[in-house]
Amino acid sequence: MGITTQTTGLANGIPPHINEVKSYFRYMNVPDSEAEVFFFYYQGLDWRNESGTPLRDWVMAADQWVWNLEN
Asked: What's the pTM?
């Protein structure tokens, strides 16, 4: 399954499904367990960043999450 622009944002305020997040993390060679931590972290924040601003692009947030894991 490829990542498309239709699955990379929060179109119409709809957050990604956990399977989309797992698929993207697998694409980046990151375990499903970390995808779940990411998903439930942002779900708990109502898909907002730490300052309360609505997340516009979950893929960008996932990229930053993985970068932080590796650095």
From this structure: 0.81
